[in-house]
């Protein structure tokens, strides 16, 4: 079974702190993704990566950065957390395929609260 | 604007009743289409997908969805709902030739009455 794990289920941080969210997948997937999930807005793509050391901006990258030093690990970084970044963060991975379309496998999510 | 719309934010059905969740998209070319389910406290799980071919697709957990090009719709159905189906359901599309980025609808929360 594909497994995507996220370092924390719940996280509380203060405004201005630097926050690291870690994601690890164990199926040798090429693609990895970070989404945030907010009520009424569905999931929105923050960043994605098609390969090690490669990253591309999604739809809402402002205030975030990412790092992918190893194939299995994809980190989301909030350089200076703000209250409007309070949200559920979901990591996903998929195999690279024809036209880039493959099933995405999701982690359980990290609920981040910034106070 | 290009988008994915799930018109129903919240639906309540009785256990054993049939279910239909609506999804409409607005993209010029037919995108790749997906339905995902998120159970409470869990990540998302793929229920089914449509790429081409037969417009009625079968998925896991007894779900099916029908692609209707003329209506730009991809509605999810289940003939008899079980209490364990209570969850949030997301329709998603990958627009044609846009590198595999999933675009999600707003989600529909399903409650099941005993």
Could you provide a short overview of the structure?
With 115 residues, chain A is mostly beta strands. Chain A is built from no helices and 11 strands.
Describe this protein's structure.
The complex is a heterodimer of chains A (115) and B (114). By secondary structure, chain A is mostly beta strands. In chain A, 0% of the residues lie in helices and 52% in strands. Chain A has strands at residues 4-6, 10-13, 19-25, 31-38, 42-49, 56-57, 64-70, 73-78, 87-94, 105-106, 110-114. The radius of gyration of chain A is 13 Å and the shape is globular. Chain A starts with a strand and ends with a strand. With 114 residues, chain B is an all-beta fold. In chain B, strands 2, 5, 6, 10, 11 and 12 form a six-stranded mixed β-sheet that branches. Chain B is globular and about 45 Å long. Chain B starts with a strand and ends with a strand. At the A-B interface, strand 4, strand 5 and strand 9 of A face strand 6 and strand 10 of B.
List keywords for this structure.
heterodimer; A: mainly beta; 7-stranded mixed sheet; 4-stranded antiparallel sheet; 52% strand; globular; B: 114 residues; 6-stranded mixed sheet; 0% helix
How would the blueprint of this fold be written?
The complex is a heterodimer of chains A (115) and B (114).
Chain A: E1 4-6, E2 10-13, E3 19-25, E4 31-38, E5 42-49, E6 56-57, E7 64-70, E8 73-78, E9 87-94, E10 105-106, E11 110-114
Parallel strand pairs in A: 2-11
Antiparallel strand pairs in A: 1-3, 3-8, 4-5, 4-9, 5-6, 7-8, 9-10, 9-11
Chain B: E1 4-5, E2 10-14, E3 19-21, E4 24-25, E5 32-38, E6 44-50, E7 56-58, E8 64-68, E9 73-78, E10 87-94, E11 103-104, E12 108-113
Parallel strand pairs in B: 2-12
Antiparallel strand pairs in B: 1-4, 3-9, 5-6, 5-10, 7-8, 8-9, 10-11, 10-12
């Amino acid at each position: 079974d594909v497994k995507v794990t996220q370092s924390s289920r719940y996280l509380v941080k203060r405004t201005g702190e630097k926050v690291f969210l870690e994601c690890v997948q164990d199926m040798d997937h090429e693609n990895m993704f970070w989404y945030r999930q907010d009520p009424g807005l569905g999931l929105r793509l923050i960043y994605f990566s098609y390969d090690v050391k490669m990253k591309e901006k999604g739809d809402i990258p402002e205030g975030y950065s990412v790092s992918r030093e190893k194939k299995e690990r994809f980190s989301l970084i909030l350089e200076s957390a703000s209250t409007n970044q309070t949200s559920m963060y979901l990591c996903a991975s998929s195999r690279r395929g024809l036209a880039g379309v493959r099933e995405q496998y999701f982690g359980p999510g990290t609920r981040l609260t910034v106070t | 604007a290009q988008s994915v719309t799930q018109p129903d934010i919240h639906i309540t059905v009785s256990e054993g009743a049939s279910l239909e969740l609506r999804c409409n998209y607005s993209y010029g070319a037919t995108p790749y289409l997906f339905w995902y389910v998120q159970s409470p406290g869990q990540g998302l799980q793929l229920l089914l997908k449509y790429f081409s071919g037969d417009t009625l697709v079968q998925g896991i957990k007894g779900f099916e969805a029908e692609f209707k090009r003329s209506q730009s719709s991809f509605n999810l159905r289940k003939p008899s709902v079980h209490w364990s189906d209570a969850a949030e359901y997301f329709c998603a599309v990958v627009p044609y030739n846009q590198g595999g980025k999933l675009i999600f609808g707003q989600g529909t929360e399903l409650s099941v009455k005993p």
